[in-house]
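Posting for a labmate who doesn't have an account.
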Amino acid sequence: GLGGSHPQTSASSLHLLGFDTNGQVAYTESCIFCCDVIRRMARNWAICIGINNYNPRNFTPLKYARQDAERVSAFFQEMNFDKVYLFTDGSSPISADQGPPYPSEPTHGNLVTFLSDRFARPFLSTGDNVWFFFAGHGERHNSKDYLMPKDANARGDKVISALQVDEVRDWLLNSGADNVVLLLDACRNEGGRGSTGISAEQPGVITMSSCNPSEKAWEINELEQGAFTYALLEALQLPGDQSCATVERLSAYLKHRVPNLCQRYGKMPAQTPRISVDPIEKQHFILIPQFARQADIEKLKTDGFRFAFNNQLRLAEKMFIRANAAAQGKDTEILVAYAKVLNQIERMGVSAATTPTAQPGQGGATAETVSVQDAAQDDRAGTQKPETTKPSLPTFEFEVVTVNAKGEISQRKQKRTEYVREDLGNGVYLDLVQIPEGTFRMGSPESEAGRDDDEEPQHEVRISGFWMGKYPVTQAQWRSVAALPQVERDLDPDPSKFKGNSRPVESVSWEEAVEFCQRLSQHTGHEYRLPNEAEWEYACRAGAATPFHFGETITDRVANFDATLTYGDAPEGEYRQETTDVGSFPANGFGLYDMHGNVWEWCADDWHENYEGAPTDGSAWLSSGSEKMVRGGSWDDFPYGCRSANRYRYARDFQYNYLGFRVVCASS
């Protein structure tokens, strides 16, 4: 029952009763139940800016930017956001806590005054979110991204009265919110928005930008909206199994739907939204709780219980806050668990319950870290520990999709698997997924379209279990390891053409990938190496016998490759002409991302022209050859090159912007 009060919080005491099998009370526990926090577990504040009336001597006036901001604002209000501030021509003044109201005309002075005043100090906390929507012009000058208010001006290298995106980000982060979401439909010009575009990458936040920097974002007369904002609002309101309530699903939807709208209404070249998530684990963040799937809520609950069990109380608190928001306060199990966590935090003190978090911009995570060393600790010689002291491995949930012969997603499944995490320092982590032992048929049947003779004969291979990188090695991970002591050769800390902390490192040779593994092994005390070719194909297939792990064909909705050529009955798609952030597309059945496309991945094996005489135990097939195997295809490859069975090779010292790798850990 509820009764009593807590002196320092708006709270009541909650008495938890435990019963034995005879129905008698076996124990009682008194918890602090924070009623106010439970009632509004996650707060949402939003700023919406839309600008049509630019000075035509500076920027082309727009038709629908104001209307886009008004519609997004209306949607946020419909979702019961706590505060929604609208800046457009003709919108009402914005009330202030003290003093006169803020003018809502979207000029540089008005926006800076509001942002610097309202976000001068933290006022939000764990579980809370800040949203920033901007529709108008945006440009990139001297490697800096700018949003253009109504009175902005840009002449050559001079940018006057513009909002620098990283300053906006810093203001919003200063609120103390758990999550900051930037929605930037800000590249519009001459029927589109912007001429030089802006980058999507902002450390520490979720950024969704309407197009790539080299593209323009179109306004569509028939829709009376920008293509990006139309697709955004459409996606956020999809019901049931179609729901795009998480960052991951919304990202996939926008990358397909926006180019589709451009093609449908004759706006060419089509724009492609660019999504950046830092840290990358926020891809699973629930954006709109009202449209969350039950599986999304259950994942947060499970994570909350796991963190609480492992005494990671601040992380448990965060998970239960998010879960309660998604469950709209109707899940009693969440409420009771949250009350117990608060009670433990109260008893232990804040410092005892605090967990270190990753630094933004490093591709790390703010989740609990269970290292490879922790996972293996009970296997050390002479170590005997009771079962109850074994570390509990964290798990993550992921969605696996199946496509039909036309490339349409015909099935979605939620799966969960264990992983371990290697701390690379400075908030950078390397996640490894457990690959179970098993047997599979390596190679392709003669009936498989696009196959080559080097994929035969098909043969049974037995694979021992191992740990494999959840993603291709990212640029943030590469920089961290490149800073470690040299083993055999130098490593360029920044070799990639397509820059981004969460993009795969590329332009690295096989020799450099081996050096990476050697440094990582020396640093951690665990055996890291490149995967054997058989291990790679087994891990890629994840039990599938089809050409791709998601089915009979491949489309630009499920992988990054040159989709201007098709496979089977799939439609033509987009050729992005660059790498994408790892994890941008659905995982396979083992929880591995980017196994098809994005970057070719180096393997340990030497090149052999077919499988005659190949090992059947999953070991590397080595000889005296100078060429090494690569697998998986890349952003620059046609679909047949991305098949699970496809093989190719390069000289071990060859580098190019489609060559990357992922690692395997052989430690127990």
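Reply:
Got it, the structure tokens are right above this. Confidence is low (pLDDT under 50) at residues 1-13, 25-40, 189-197, 350-391.
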